């Protein structure tokens, strides 16, 4: 018997995939994180997919707000999941599983940033491969006109480049609050700072971005640093491969 993961709310949207449901148990897709974690720890490793699909985009955006490269940010998320999986027994709360997971990935991204050699890439922020990938027109976009789609992709590229130029503390707070659309409290928990600090950092980020933040550009914020579809599938597959879980066990 199989159960399909339902579409998540807008800020936690993820690609859907069939998850094998253990016989005699209720569908796990509606369970809170803590219940899913308990079942993973009890041996239902395949249910770790639910965790990944709930948080892939959020965690990618956290890593991407620290690392200036899409591929390295994805690697940081992958390593963060592996670390979290083997530390599930250490999760105690009380701030919640999502915040705990966010901090693991954030720390992984920060460690990678510290290990990076001084930038030697002569390409500007607008010319980096990561930005070219992010600026590709979305085939699912409501914009049907190819010229309009290209214009939207160019604006998206400029927006992401402008965000990349923010100082890291401002950038992380802005991405979580304005792009991922977390609450002030959720953002503070993820970053390990006070809510007042989040408000200050987001305010300063807005001031720095003000000249780029036209109404048209603001409308693109929810799609900035997107992570779904094939990229989401790829990440889930790679994590399970590293955990020694075969595709037959989780698909």
TrEMBL record:
Q: Where is the RNA polymerase sigma-70 region domain?
A: 52-117
Which controlled-vocabulary keywords does the entry list?
Sigma factor, Transcription, Transcription regulation
Protein family? Belongs to the sigma-70 factor family. ECF subfamily.
**Which InterPro entries does this entry report, sorted A to Z?**
RNA_pol_sigma-70-like, RNA_pol_sigma-70_dom, RNA_pol_sigma70_r2, RNA_pol_sigma70_r4_t2, RNA_pol_sigma_r2, RNA_pol_sigma_r3/r4-like, WH-like_DNA-bd_sf
Q: What is this protein called?
A: RNA polymerase sigma factor
Species this protein is from: Sediminicurvatus halobius
Please give the Gene3D superfamilies that the UniProt record associates with this protein: 1.10.1740.10, Winged helix-like DNA-binding domain superfamily/Winged helix DNA-binding domain
Ranges for the region named Disordered are: 1-30
Annotated PANTHER family: RNA POLYMERASE ECF-TYPE SIGMA FACTO, RNA POLYMERASE SIGMA FACTOR
BP term (GO), one: DNA-templated transcription initiation
Domain RNA polymerase sigma factor 70 region 4 type per the UniProt entry, residue ranges = 157-208
GO MF terms held by the record: DNA binding; sigma factor activity
């Amino acid at each position: 018997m199989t159960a399909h993961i339902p579409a998540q709310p807008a800020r936690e949207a993820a690609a859907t995939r069939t998850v094998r449901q253990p016989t005699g148990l209720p569908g796990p897709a509606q369970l809170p994180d803590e219940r899913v974690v308990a079942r993973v720890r009890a041996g239902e490793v395949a249910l770790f997919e639910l965790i990944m699909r709930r948080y892939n985009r959020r965690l990618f955006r956290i890593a991407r707000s620290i690392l200036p490269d899409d591929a390295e940010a994805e690697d940081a998320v992958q390593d963060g999941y592996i670390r979290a999986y083997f530390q599930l027994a250490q999760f105690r709360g009380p701030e919640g599983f999502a915040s705990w997971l966010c901090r693991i990935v954030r720390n992984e991204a920060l460690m990678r940033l510290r290990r990076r050699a001084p930038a030697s890439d002569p390409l500007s922020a607008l010319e980096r491969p990561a930005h070219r990938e992010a600026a590709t027109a979305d085939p699912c976009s409501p914009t049907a006109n190819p010229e309009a789609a290209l214009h939207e992709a160019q604006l998206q590229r400029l927006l992401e480049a402008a965000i990349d130029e923010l100082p890291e503390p401002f950038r992380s707070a802005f991405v979580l609050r304005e792009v991922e659309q977390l609450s002030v409290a959720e953002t503070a928990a993820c970053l390990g700072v006070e809510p007042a600090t989040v408000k200050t950092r987001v305010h300063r980020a807005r001031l720095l971005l003000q000249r780029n933040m036209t109404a048209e550009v603001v409308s693109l914020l929810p799609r900035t640093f997107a992570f779904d579809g094939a990229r989401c599938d790829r990440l889930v597959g790679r994590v399970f491969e590293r955990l020694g879980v075969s595709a037959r066990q989780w698909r």
